[in-house]
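Posting this for the archive.
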Amino acid sequence: MARNVTSKFGVADGLDFSSETGITNIAIDKLVPYHNHRFTLYQGERLQDMVQSISKNGVMTPIIVRTMENGKYEILSGHNRVYAAGQAGITSVPAVVKTDLSDEEAEVYVIETNLLQRSFQDLKISEQAFAVGIRYSKLFDERKLKAISDELYFIENGKHKLEAEQNVPVEHLTTRDATAEEYGISSSKVARLLRVNKLIDEFKALVDKGNIKLRSAVDISFMPEEQQKLTYSLMVRMGVTVIDMKMAKQLREVSASYAVVSEDIITEVLTGEYGKDDAEPKDKGEKITLPTVTYKRYLSTYSKKEANEIIEKALALYFEQTENEE
């Protein structure tokens, strides 16, 4: 069996992961998933391809784990490999063991590994928010972040990252701008993703499904956790599965306006009844004039009712397409 050499930051300690030094085989039944794992595991064809590869060649790249007090090991990198190995009938996998890692450091291993294996854009919105939240929080300095990133690259590729491939931090950037540059997104997208982290898990799942658009998620995120839980429980009870932009803005409004947000108020928002008052004159709305050339080009052959329906659908499509921009 390979010699069990443990360390906190492997590459910084000079371990050679291209040989068996620093790698040990660990029984699968001694491995437990990372306690705060937020990333989707492989399914379907991708999983089956991994199972077949491991059945034929074994686990070629060691997983990364940290020690636990109960004698077991928590997986930081390699959840898919461990599951696929179990499916292939393999009872142990090669692992690099980490000791004395804080939860914050462990989370970076989890995030950086997932970003190494798939692009940021391939992640779900909630996964992007989780990654951005950790990166933005500056939980540890650039030196430690670089050490972890370089180590993971070495383990995955069997060679050191070339200097030209390494990201050099730009000192003059704000934290938000630096995070945006790191993941190839805009600064405003970073701000929105940070707000997504303030949603309860049930709403994050709806964001991932597209039932709540990103900008609407921002509005909902300003509701305290208890109000979010109350809103979601009412949605389940009423069979509501989508929160649109209007609902989200109204939920944020009632949360800011009332000291106590009741079930009745949230119900009014979810049913579209909030803000209606029969005692007051109905709002006739603003009149918007279309240029004659535009009207003749697109709407002249339709009735007024049909034209209004077309305009409403076109606007809905426009805002849906721009929801997740930036």
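Residues 198-271 form one domain. The beta strands are 24-27, 31-32, 63-67, 73-77, 92-98.
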